[in-house]
Amino acid sequence: MIRQQATAILIIVILFIVGCNDDSIPQATMDNGKKVYNTYCLGCHMEDAMGVPRMNPPLAGSELLLNDKTKPIRIVLRGSEELKGQPERDYKNVMAALGSLSDQEIADVLTFARNSFGNKAPAIKESDVKSERSKIK
Amino acid sequence: MKHLKRFFAIVCVFTLSYCANNSSDKTGTTEEKAETTKPSTADQPNGGITLPAGFSATVFADDLGSARHITVNTNGDVYTKVDKLNDGHGILRLRDTNNDGVADSVSGFGNYKGTGIAVGGGFLYATSDENIYRYKLNNNEPDPASEELIVTGLVNEKQHSSKPITLDNAGNIYVNIGAPSNACQEKDREKDSKGQDPCPILEKAGGIWQFKIDKKNQSYKEGTRYVTGIRNIMALSWNSEVNQLFGVQHGRDDLNRLFPDLYSEEESVELPAEEMFQLKKGSDFGWPYCYYDQRQKKKLLGPEFGGDKVKTDRCDGKGKPIYAFPGHWAPNGLLFYSGTQFPEKYRNGAFIAFHGSWNRAPREQQGYFVVFLAFKNGMPSGDYEIFADGFAGADKTPKGAAFRPCGLAQGPDGSLFICDDQKGRVWKITYKVS
């Protein structure tokens, strides 16, 4: 009976981990991402990520941020230059390239932004950023 | 064992629903916020804004979209330029036929978006972000078919591309060609990117240009660079009392983000000043090399060009402001009041619409009001006072603000019109002696 109870508890724990997989971003990633966001992003995208009408786009609900992984990585690495000539470049301000940030910082800030402000999207890994950066250079 | 299976099933359902709730809670936040921060204010006193004693406002028009600038013809017809087409129209005429303070006839024409609008001498002038057009008014009725392109090919690179205009009384039109840049760095707004010296932008932007009101297809060759060294002037107006051009500049952004070792967050929020200029022909106001520090009352050398918060260097000879407002308030509209309806102190003074800041984040945003600055003989004669406030409502952020004042105009009876580009509300403000 004790063995059965132990198995039951184990299975419950596993179920929680598997069932809540999308929420399993380490707190340290979110904390570091927030730190990077506050230093480099908040000034234009605002504390609530709602942006500035006409000038700076919102990140809350942003398709460019959430739809795939490579686009947001490339935008952080290259700034608004990445969107030049495309319909998505419809806000007036430029975004500076942030390629001087480390792969880890970019991964963390994107993971943070993709899982804050009402957003929910898979985490971005350091290796994802590394691979995209190598394609740009 | 049967018990255990049932127990697992319950745990499974519980776990999944817990996770589902968790994520739906998160996605719900922004939507809820959007709804709760935008209450209807049309029925509130003065259309949701506050005014000094004796003044009252009506909602002259509402929900026009992005109503940028506004002008009033001698017969009382109000025109506003919208930056998002409204039913396909970029110019809206608002007419109040029964004079109750509410436009009862709204019509539109001009299939381009933009900001600038002005009326005078039987013509209506309007701008896209590249061109200036004009329309003949036949017995005060604008004739869309008479559209003439008078100025074309002006710099439009998104940033600071709005083209506010004003008319003098001698056949000229003045247009702001904002610099498509923050401080003319090699890479705009990028940390550690050097300032370009000389700044090539100044050749075709970063100043006010003068053109003739009645010549077709003018561009840089036919125009005059009237003043230079200006980042972006949205609040631009001819002052007919002293026959001079005036403007209030949007000062540079990001001193702390770009130079964190030199400027504190607090300094970056308050500096540089939003400078008010008397725009005398031939003047150079120093952008991008210089900015105005209202605390030291000096034009300082910008950090991109070797400045250290103290050095003035080449900025000593640059045009000084006639008044300095705190940083980032975003002056978007300027009107010199020439009417007699308002009390004596307002005569020939300046109303300035501050659109409201964004570059003060993470600190509290400021602006989002219309101020009054008294003038005597064409110069400020006191300190500014807040005239109309409360536009933002409970959420004073660029996106959350209920309204953002952008344009100003004076009616033939001396009433003041204010337009908003967040939702497109227009207020008509009148004064009554009690």
Can you tell me about this structure?
The complex is a heterodimer of chains A (137) and B (434). Helix content of chain A is 53%, strand content 0%. Chain A has 6 helices and no strands. Chain A has helices spanning 2-19, 27-45, 63-66, 70-78, 103-114, 126-136. Chain A is mainly α. Chain A has a single domain (25-136), classed as Cytochrome Bc1 Complex, Chain D, domain 2. Chain B is mainly beta and 434 residues long. Chain B has one domain: TolB, C-terminal domain (Neuraminidase, 6 Propeller), CATH 2.120.10. Chain B has 3 helices and 29 strands. In chain B, strands 6, 7, 8, 9 and 10 form a 5-stranded antiparallel sheet that branches. The longest helix of chain B has 35 residues, at 2-36. Mean pLDDT of chain B is 92; it is low at 10-40. Classes of the chains: A mainly alpha (137), B mainly beta (434). At the A-B interface, helix 1 and helix 2 of A face helix 1 of B.
Short description:
The complex is a heterodimer of chains A (137) and B (434). Chain A is mainly alpha-helical and 137 residues long. Chain A has helices at residues 2-19, 27-45, 63-66, 70-78, 103-114, 126-136.
